[in-house]
Amino acid sequence: MDALNEVAANIRAVSATLPDGVRLVAVSKFHPAEYIREAYDAGQRVFGESREQELAKKVAELPDDIEWHFIGHLQSNKVKYIAPYIHMIEAVDSLKLLREINRQAAIHGRVINVLLELHIAQEATKYGLTPDDCMALLEGGEWREMHNVHISGLMMMASNTDDTQQIRSEFERGAQLFDTIKERYFAADDTFCERSWGMSHDYRIAIECRSTMVRIGTAIFGPRVY
């Protein structure tokens, strides 16, 4: 079975491991449109990309009912390119970026869902808001006046390590922070509900730590194609 034909089987295998309430974001970045089409034909509808030019080409080639998530680090000056069609931006790591998403969404008459990205992992190379910075952004309150952006939850990556206890500890810290933020700022908003953590190598731990969305690429599509 070649790599393309394996995609559908991999989608079914991964989906079978996910409990109710956990959605799969198939990370399709660096893979061609035909791989996404194979996953789509197997029933997958949510895909994650991280480069706006690559994403634009795929949007033009693939079905309109795909729910596209931008999962990589996003520069403010790139928001305008994805604002017309992006469903969710998963890695908002600054107030500046949140403002620009709101501005561009307004231009297109849309409301864009976003997740605030946490930096909990013990790696300097990771992007994201520290827990203190995340709380400060929310406490500032400017987001309440942004009517074209909706904060739907939190996103994070655990440290890239074989130490499963460290991974679990970081995910648990994210879950605890979600609870604090939910109670303090979003108690009346049922749509603040997403906890996006877990990738191919650690998603089973993430699910045990109350993840609602797992971002899986390699286990579905194999090594990057380009």
Structure description:
This protein is of the alpha/beta class and 226 residues long. The chain contains nine helices and eight strands. The protein has an eight-stranded parallel β-sheet with strand order 7-6-5-4-3-2-1-8. β1 (23-27), α2 (33-41) and β2 form a beta-alpha-beta unit. α1 crosses α2. The longest helix is centred in the C-terminal third of the chain and has 22 residues, at 164-185. The protein is globular, with a radius of gyration of 17 Å. The mean pLDDT is 95.
Structural descriptors:
globular, single chain, 9 helices, 226 residues, alpha/beta
Oligomer: single chain
What characteristic shape results from the CA principal axes?
globular
For the termini, the CA-CA separation is: 20 Å
Strand order of the largest sheet: 7-6-5-4-3-2-1-8
Rg, nearest Å: 17 Å
Which structural class should the secondary elements be placed in?
Answer: alpha/beta
- Helix percent reads 40-55%
Average pLDDT, rounded to a whole number, is 95
Topology, element by element:
Elements lengths: L2 H13 L7 E5 L5 H9 L4 E4 L2 H10 L5 E4 L8 H4 L5 E5 L2 H13 L4 E7 L12 H10 L8 E8 L7 H22 L8 E3 L6 H6 L4 E4 L1 H4 L5
Parallel strand pairs: 1-2, 1-8, 2-3, 3-4, 4-5, 5-6, 6-7
Summary of the model, kept short:
The protein is of the alpha/beta class. 40% of the residues lie in helices and 18% in strands. α4 links the parallel β3 and β4.
